[in-house]
Amino acid sequence: MRVIVEADGGSRGNPGPAGYGAVVLDATTGEILAERAESIGTATNNVAEYGGLIAGLEAAVALGATEVDARMDSKLVVEQMSGRWQIKNEGLRPLAAKAADLVRRFDVVRFSWIPRAQNKRADALANRAMDAAAGKPVRSARDVADDAEPAPLPRPEIAGPDSPGRRLARDIAAGASPARGAAAPPVGSGGTVGAAVPAGGWEPRLAAPLRLILIRHGETSLTAQRRYSGRVDVALTERGLAQARAVADSLTGVAIDAVVSSPLERCLRTAEFLKAPIVTDPDLIECDFGDWDGLTFAEVRERWPDRVNAWLASGDVAPPGGESFETVATRVQAAVSRIRTRFPQGNIAVVSHVSPIKLILRDALAAGEAFLHRAHLDPAGISTVDLYPDGGISVRGVNETAHLRFLADR
């Protein structure tokens, strides 16, 4: 479902009594699907504006939207969420990170600047929130809908599904060639930004990212024999301990703020070598392989040939008595969200297992299910993902093992 989110916020005094408003519209009909408004006490205009955006995106999630056109008259929020402006205000970074987390819930999100005159619905809701304490009557968004001068609704697709890239190109072309009789936006005024929030991008980011250093635990007796090892709590071998030391040595000089680890021993023992505070998260535990735990792939193939084929074909299929990759993905995404909330920036080492790390990389690369069966992660291999406040993602490395070369002949 494709929707438009119009959002606004403000304060009386900057900082002062503040509130925000947001309206969710059907992108085809213009029907108002949801309204949100709230007073947030004393705050700045920018904090209130981010509050309106977050409320609007949350409402769109609740409605089941897959594609969002987010429109605001705050150039600062639009430019920061589009990745073009640095977020210098420390107080705005957690809000931008929360908005970015919501953005990742949709297939496509485009941010556009619109004049205040075209944002009357959200503006009315924001004013209602600011006036609530004083008991002043404020009209609802539906009351002002007829007075508003809304931005043009997106044209419906004519022939078949449209790709995000094609839509973005069309938006850019439309922005470059204003409709006949319409004045072109002045240079530097922002105009209609119309850019989709990138999952990655060519342009350099100015805001510092949260860097996830993804580390697979060192070797165990089961990994050495290429056996499934899910929930079984098996210790590191001597070689695994040497690999864990090598990981720590390779990261000497990297200021690791914290380690978030699976609670299983093989991960915790690997994490201890990093000499940083350790937080355990059970959602980072390996996939539950059920009846397959402890067996080799050949043994599993011999006993459950049909189930193996179905498992390889779909992430929704679970091993007998175990859990599917998509179930694992849900809890791993929750773990990453908690990490981002607790550590908006810095270097965080995540010590986990093959499946959780592959799922993090799959999401970061916007890859399909086949990635899970084609990517290879060695014991004690290191992968690196940067997560930016604006929603940008950069995969810096996958399964780096140069630090393990001296162990090759052991």
UniProtKB/TrEMBL annotation:
Which residues are recorded as binding substrate?
A: R266
Q: What GO CC terms are in its UniProt record?
A: cytoplasm
* Catalytic residues of the enzyme: H217 (tele-phosphohistidine intermediate), E286 (proton donor/acceptor), E286 (proton donor/acceptor)
Give GO MF terms, alphabetically. nucleic acid binding; phosphatase activity; RNA-DNA hybrid ribonuclease activity
Q: Which SUPFAM superfamilies does this UniProt record tie to the protein?
A: Phosphoglycerate mutase-like, Ribonuclease H-like
CDD domains hit by this protein: HP_PGM_like (cd07067), RNase_HI_like (cd09279)
Q: Where is the RNase H type-1 domain?
A: 1-139
Q: Where is this region: Disordered?
A: 136-168
Lineage, top-rank taxon, reads Bacteria
Q: Which Pfam families match?
A: His_Phos_1, RVT_3
InterPro entries named among the record's database cross-references: His_Pase_superF_clade-1 (IPR013078), His_PPase_superfam (IPR029033), PGM_Phosphatase (IPR050275), RNaseH-like_sf (IPR012337), RNaseH/PGlycerate_mutase (IPR014636), RNaseH_domain (IPR002156), RNaseH_sf (IPR036397)
Query: Which NCBIfam families does the annotation name?
Result: PRK07238.1 (NF005567)
- The protein, known as: Bifunctional RNase H/acid phosphatase
Which source organism?
Answer: Virgisporangium aliadipatigenens
